[in-house]
Specification:
Helix content is 44%, strand content 14%. By secondary structure, the chain is α/β, with parallel strands linked by helices. The chain folds into two domains: 337 residues, Rossmann fold (3-Layer(aba) Sandwich); 65 residues, Arc Repressor Mutant, subunit A. The strands form five sheets. Strands 4-5-8-3-9 form a five-stranded parallel β-sheet. A three-stranded antiparallel β-sheet has the order 12-14-13. α15 packs across α17. The longest helix has 22 residues.
Length: 435
């Protein structure tokens, strides 16, 4: 299997070569009301699987992708890991797929992956795929340690939790005295689980991934600043999903396609379980240091619901890149894996901005570009000079600033003009909406 990265359109939408969102392929695709992921997210074997299944389901390809990455990380287990500073990160991807009740096709995305994994790793789906999060104690119980002869405990601590009504889970977590939020945060970190009032209830080295389905309206209604500040929901990638095809007579993927994909996935997952520490290639490490990490760090002044909800973007970029790499039969994160992960994190940030609506500033998925957009709008008719932009984005080097300004002038109503100032030309960035 090869690592493949699809071409990127200048407006962030897939080019015609990518069939996943292109209406020119002859498949009937409804208009999409929210953000569109960069086609780089459909990288490698995971991306190829999504492309193969795309014509057989109305589910959003990016919804199928995050379910696939989450299920794969859970099925692989606790063996592979990477170090981020002094924190050991497992191959765990948690995601909230957020879409309208009638048009999100959230459950269809999960069902597509479950059907594939039932064929590839039937024992895992039968034993380790669960639902019904109600309390922290209940989650620990599902992966509990043994208690001598009284209880043998759970030997296989892998768990893929799918909550089709995540709004109910959120409500349970807000009950007075509930330990669910704290236990979920420990589980995302890969820490041992336990509660102080139940000494006998303990789980060592759990490996738990969570997928939740929720509508935008319900998410906005149930999410409170206190919950976000507690850190539970920034453990999730928020992924906007919308029906991508109209298939009135759909019968799903042919059995032959599922069987072929399942055979390959069985080998992928078996090989990945043998991996230990995962590291970046030299090229990926350079990309991380010079381009991705500065872009994901944001600014110390960033605040508000959107910043809270996406606070773990940097570690998620590496975690996701690790799962992309593992599903490509390698323990080295290459540049395509890291670019794909970065694109998915950008899409999650744009999704969060779209979902939170008026409670968050409009977002492009890049905090530096968002900051520049707001500054140029505030500057009024006189615009912002290149020197002012340099001060505003002082944390970026010249190449990074040039990339941000180049993307700014591609946006509607923004432009760059050359002004003469005593023999020298000064670039000025302007915001000029019609009317």
């Amino acid at each position: 299997m090869s690592v493949e990265t699809l071409p990127t359109a200048t407006d962030g939408r897939p080019q015609a070569a990518n069939p996943l969102y292109d209406p020119a392929t002859g498949l009937e695709r409804p208009d999409r009301p929210g953000p569109v992921p960069d086609p780089e997210v459909f990288c490698g074997w995971a991306g190829q699987t999504v492309r193969d299944l795309d014509p057989t389901t109305e589910a959003d390809p990016v919804g199928v992708l995050v379910n696939l990455l989450s299920a794969a990380g859970a099925a692989i287990g606790p063996g592979p890991f990477l170090w981020i500073s002094n924190s050991r990160h497992p191959a765990l991807i948690w995601a909230l797929t957020v879409g309208a009740t009638a048009a999100g096709r959230k459950g269809e995305a999960t069902n597509t992956v479950q059907r594939l994994f039932k064929a590839a790793v039937p024992d895992f789906i039968a034993t380790n795929a669960r639902s019904g999060l109600s309390s922290g104690e209940g989650l620990i119980e599902a992966v509990r340690d043994g208690d001598g002869d009284k209880d043998p405990g759970v030997v296989d601590k892998r768990l893929w939790v799918v909550e089709s009504e995540y709004g109910v889970t959120m409500a349970r977590g807000r009950r007075e005295g509930s330990s669910l939020g704290g236990i979920l945060r420990q589980a995302w970190n890969g820490e041992d689980l336990g509660v102080m009032n139940r000494e006998a209830l303990h789980a060592t080295a759990p490996h738990i991934a969570v997928i939740g389905h929720i509508s935008p309206r319900e998410l906005r209604a149930k999410m409170q600043d206190a919950e976000m500040a507690g850190g539970t929901y920034n453990r999730f990638l928020a992924v906007f999903v919308h029906r991508n095809l109209l298939l009135p007579d759909a019968t799903g993927a042919p059995d032959a396609l599922i069987d072929n994909l399942a055979t390959a996935w069985r080998t992928v997952l078996t090989d990945a379980r043998r991996v230990g520490e995962v590291q970046l290639t030299d090229q990926a490490a350079q990309l991380w240091r010079e381009e991705i990490y500065p872009a994901l760090c944001g600014d110390e002044a960033d605040d508000g619901p959107l910043a809270e909800f996406t606070a773990r973007a940097a570690p998620y970029a590496k975690r996701t890149a690790m799962v992309y790499a593992l599903t490509d039969h390698t323990d080295r994160i290459g540049e395509p894996h890291l670019r794909a992960a970065w694109a998915l994190v950008r899409y999650a940030r744009a999704s969060a901005a779209h979902i939170l609506g008026p409670t968050a500033a409009a977002s492009t998925g890049d905090p530096h570009l968002d900051k520049l957009i707001q500054a140029v709008k505030t500057a009024g008719p006189s615009g912002m000079t290149q020197s002012q932009v340099q001060v505003l984005l002082k944390r970026l080097n010249a190449t990074q600033r040039a990339d941000v300004t180049a993307r700014l002038v591609q946006l509607p109503d923004f432009a760059a003009a050359q002004l003469s100032t005593g023999g020298r030309h000064q670039t000025v960035y302007l915001y000029a909406p019609p009317g």
